[in-house]
Amino acid sequence: MTEPSIFIHKHILGIKELSPQDIHHIITTARSFREISNRPIKKVPTLRGKTVVNLFLEPSTRTRLSFEIAAKRMSADTFNLSGSSSSTRKGETLIDTARNIQAMNPDVIIMRHGRSGAPHLLGRYVDCSIINAGDGAHEHPSQALLDAMTILDHKQSLAGLKIAIVGDIAHSRVAHSNIFSFTKLGAQVCLAGPATFMPADITSLGAHVCTSVGEAVTGADVVMALRIQIERQHDPLIPSLREYAVHYGINRALLKLAKPDVLVMHPGPINRGVEMNPDVADGPWSVILDQVTNGVAVRMALLYLVLGGDKSA
Amino acid sequence: MTEPSIFIHKHILGIKELSPQDIHHIITTARSFREISNRPIKKVPTLRGKTVVNLFLEPSTRTRLSFEIAAKRMSADTFNLSGSSSSTRKGETLIDTARNIQAMNPDVIIMRHGRSGAPHLLGRYVDCSIINAGDGAHEHPSQALLDAMTILDHKQSLAGLKIAIVGDIAHSRVAHSNIFSFTKLGAQVCLAGPATFMPADITSLGAHVCTSVGEAVTGADVVMALRIQIERQHDPLIPSLREYAVHYGINRALLKLAKPDVLVMHPGPINRGVEMNPDVADGPWSVILDQVTNGVAVRMALLYLVLGGDKSA
Amino acid sequence: MTEPSIFIHKHILGIKELSPQDIHHIITTARSFREISNRPIKKVPTLRGKTVVNLFLEPSTRTRLSFEIAAKRMSADTFNLSGSSSSTRKGETLIDTARNIQAMNPDVIIMRHGRSGAPHLLGRYVDCSIINAGDGAHEHPSQALLDAMTILDHKQSLAGLKIAIVGDIAHSRVAHSNIFSFTKLGAQVCLAGPATFMPADITSLGAHVCTSVGEAVTGADVVMALRIQIERQHDPLIPSLREYAVHYGINRALLKLAKPDVLVMHPGPINRGVEMNPDVADGPWSVILDQVTNGVAVRMALLYLVLGGDKSA
Question: What pLDDT does C89 receive?
């Protein structure tokens, strides 16, 4: 692993903006924080008196919880604003909402928004740090960082790994951030999914589109299934969940094509029996719950780094 | 009162699983914590750095608030997940939701769920402690514990007391937990309510079903009215609220049949003029607000005990 | 400015109940707290172990956030109860809800309610302090206090100032609290707005009703535009937003009629292009974001003062 560089980012908007050195720096920092969550007293004073606002304009359970746990374990004060309680529905522009929050002197705004680019827009208008917790189908950088961290718990490096990502690539910010991250770190990314789930310009990102899930999984070091995001499809893009499961669901037979030490990943929440069979999700290949555990550590690292933790250390 | 035993429970799933010694142990512990809420600085460091997740998959105001106040007065960090923001509606199983929360290293999950047995199911899948904050029409153990504590503030013992519970027994987890608790502690429990509110097998729990509310209240040491849970009835089981009030509402005339030092209780929220007349709810017999105050103390005790407070002391 | 008097108010229900000395006392206290929000560690231990309940029975983003930030920066524990999760929809009376919260020993209840007078009612039933965060179209005292503080950052005194308030006076608790505050502090308040937005008895409050927005703004030291509260009108009271903007929207041409050093204010959220043109909202006259910053400081002061901070100091 590379020697940690100086971390210079004020915002975490996407993996696109991060260098491989940045990614390794974040993961190294996250590893140093991970054991805090195993202590009897899960709390360090590092971010005491810092104000962290969770501005979630799309529903979320685990990402919001993960960021909130990360912030409180660093002793920051956290504040939750959700879509339903937000002023945006009162006709206020997003920029005004952000500037109003900014006027209350937060240190970080963690933001989820249904539109791609919303956090990037705000980053130009506020003084505090913005962490993108998912913007439309665009990016979800903390998810990609926890995914890379989880793979690196088992593999020396991502360089030369074959990583299969299966499912709804087009609508998945997780897929996009992971394609950026995995290719930056030297892995070969192979995509599989129904044609309606595959964006036309995807190869420009450096990923390889396979004609079948079997091709993608064959020889793979990592198999990542994506969630069918039913709530984000206005028209059904697949004939049925049953048919999807038959053609694209990850099962034991399919995993026989992968490397023997393959890692199975899923960003959650899982539709069991659709994207993945229960025996795969709960099997020895699965690192799905490690992803969740690493998520808290990655988010602690992000909060620490954007607030200049390295410089004060 | 019995000498406090060693408290060995990791979860608090129901009164059914607790011994009379356990119940007294919890109440004794709660009494020692009660005065904290009367101090100018209502905070002790006992649970500092502990992570308490409120997973409320059914709406709740006071129970969630009571647990959150209890946790924060012990210096724990609290996190609220509600039904509307939960992943469960995204097709995730309850076990996956719980295992995902577990992967973030909480110490306690406080859980309310519409289905009976949900907390018991989770208790087999997670490492942290589960406290049942109400599961369907099954159990609501912290409510029964605060009720027993409130009675014991006024009576030497529950042994030999006559306790009338009036109302919707069939749909009430409060009734079920209290029947378990009161009979374990030696009281005679007399039930009254419309036939549609009386479960067929209720006498197997050791309670006596009365043919009229007058019979139940006559000579009673405690009269507990239950709330008409209109939101949990798909079809109306009573002709009208007016008629219910006439036949089953607790009023002054009815209370004349009880012991002179009768205690009047209600788990709240009260439908005034339905289950209980205002002059009864606000009268000298009423210990309804003492129940609420004791609720915070009981929940402090439960958090302390499941986290092994006795052993570290 | 007057020498700070002893602050004797247990509740903050409205500006109507406050003397000019009280208002100056709050603003002086707020000024002393304001710099805390600019520190690297934005936290003082002043209210450690105090319990602050945000009971918001109407939706709110910024006011709730502002109070929550104020409370946590003083180290109080905060608890949020919102309308959708409240027992009030289960048939409980507001007084019972408040008495139940009271039984859990809070120190302050911050309350927003759709009905005028609701906080005043509760103030007679609970032992803790009540701060009105907006009751119907009646009062919103903390908003008026932050508005006065913002003006006094730029003007020596309010005495003799001409302050124009433009818009929906009838439905605006902000207008009502500000009319009370500005007239108590010696300013001349000039109102302008469509006839359907002007209450019949408004002159009894000491404000002057102008026949045009131009008359109100001419020579003004302060121009405050109110938000068109679309969600609070059951029937549209204005023909169209476009027409409103033409006749009552604040624009550069209109501001030329005011004093050169006029301050432009808005309680937010702004409907840009309706109540106010973007170049005015973002222009050099605008102190709109200063209002938000001062809001946190005023709310820190209110929490401190109702909890007897002066006496313990």
Answer: 56
> Do the bridges between strand C263-265 and strand C222-225 make them parallel or antiparallel, or are there none, so unpaired?
parallel
The mean pLDDT of chain C is 92
CB A134 within 8 A of CB A115: no
Is the predicted pLDDT of residue A85 greater than 50, yes or no? Answer: no
d(CA C203, CA A66): 54
Q: Measured between CB atoms, does A205 come within 8 Å of chain B?
A: no
pLDDT in tens, C123-156: 999 999 999 999 999 999 999 999 999 999 999 9
The Cα–Cα gap between A127 and A109 comes to 10
Q: Verify that B207 and B110 share a domain, yes or no.
A: no
Q: Say whether pLDDT at C80 is over 80.
A: yes
Query: What chains are in contact with B, requiring at least 3 Cβ pairs below 8 Å?
Result: A, C
Q: Would you give the distance in Å from CA B267 to the centre of its chain? A: 7
User: Could you give the number of structural domains in chain C?
Assistant: 2
Q: What dihedral do alpha carbons C87, C89, C95, C99 form, nearest 10°?
A: 0
Cα distance from A122 to chain C (closest Cα, Å)? 16
Residues C298 and C274 grouped into a single domain:
no
Residue range of the domain that includes B278: 154-286
Q: Are residue A102 and residue A187 in the same domain, yes or no?
A: no
Q: Is C187 exposed, middle or buried (0-12, 13-18, 19+ CB in 10 A)?
A: buried
**Dihedral of the alpha carbons of B158, B161, B164, B170, in degrees to the nearest 10:** 50
Is residue A70 within 8 A of residue A52, CB to CB? The reply is no
Buried b (16+ CB within 10 A) or exposed e, A233-256: eeeeebeebeebbeebbbeeebbe
Only one residue has tokens 């199911």, namely: B121
- Nearest-by-CA chain C residue for A87: C61
pTM beyond cutoff 0.90: yes
Q: Is B101 on the interface with A (CB under 8 A)?
A: yes
Same domain, B124 and B167: no
Closest CA to C276 of C236, C205, C235, C217: C217
Contact C85, B59 (CB under 8 A): yes
**pLDDT band at A1; cut points 50, 70, 90:** very low
Among A2-16, A98-112, B175-189, C63-77, the range scoring the smallest mean pLDDT is A2-16
Report CA A49 to chain centroid distance, whole Å.
Answer: 27
Within-domain flag for A297:
yes
Q: Classify residue A163: in a domain, yes or no.
A: yes
Q: Are residues B134 and B159 in the same domain?
A: no
CATH of the domain at A232: 3.40.50.1370
Residues of C in contact with A105 (CB under 8 A): 37-38, 42, 293, 296
* A59 CB within 8 Å of a chain C CB: no
> Which pLDDT belongs to residue B202?
83
Rounded Cα distance, B115 and B119, in Å: 9
With CA atoms as reference, report the closest residue to C141 among C311, C312, C302: C302
**Burial (Cβ within 10 Å: 0-12, 13-18, ≥19) of residue A268:** buried
B272-311 per-position pLDDT tens digit: 999 999 999 999 999 999 999 999 999 999 999 999 876 6
Nearest residue to B271 via CA among B136, B168, B139, B149: B168
Question: Do B47 and C71 form a contact (C-beta atoms < 8 A)?
Answer: no
pLDDT range class, residue C85, cuts 50, 70, 90: very low
Instruction: Give the count of Cβ contacts less than 8 A between chain A and C.
Output: 83
Cis previous bond, B59, omega within 30 = no
Binned at pLDDT 50, 70 and 90, residue C68 comes out as very high
Rounded mean pLDDT, A19-26: 98
| Contact residues on chain A for C272, CB-CB shorter than 8 A | 93, 96
Q: Which of the 8 DSSP states describes residue C18?
A: -
